[in-house]
Amino acid sequence: MPVSRRGRRGLAGHPSPLHIHHTPDHASWLNQVELFFSTLTRRLLRRGQFASRDELAAAIDTFVLAYDEHDAKPYRWTCDGSPLKAA
């Protein structure tokens, strides 16, 4: 849940089990996280019926292992850390 710094300050006075973290909107790594959770939802959570939290956790663990084995593609980092040069 995206929360601005001002919104986070407003929520600070309310006790909650949630921990709010500010993340920038332009964090490109979040796109990959969102894609993974979308896949998890479509393939497992939407169709699943789980009798307990432990059963759900076990199903997610099994899904992640299968996803890593068959569907995940390694990312090849191409940046060498050098500063960009003006054109």
What does this structure look like?
This protein is mainly α. The chain has a domain of 25 residues. It is built from 3 helices and no strands.
Biggest β-sheet description: none
Q: Could you tell me the strand content as a percent range?
A: under 5%
Mean pLDDT: 81
The secondary-structure class comes to mainly alpha
Q: Distance N terminus to C terminus? A: 38 Å
Q: What is the number of strand segments?
A: 0
**Order of H and E elements:** HHH
Low-confidence spans: pLDDT under 50, at least 5 residues? none
Task: Indicate the overall shape.
Answer: flat
Question: What is the helix tally?
Answer: 3
Could you estimate the helical fraction of the residues in percent?
40-55%
Rounded to an integer in angstroms, the radius of gyration calculated over CA atoms is: 19 Å
Kindly summarize this structure in a few lines.
The protein is an all-alpha fold. The protein has helices at 5-11, 29-45, 53-70.
Outline the fold blueprint.
Blueprint lengths: L4 H7 L17 H17 L7 H18 L17
Task: Looking at this protein, list some descriptive labels.
flat; 87 residues; 0% strand; mainly alpha
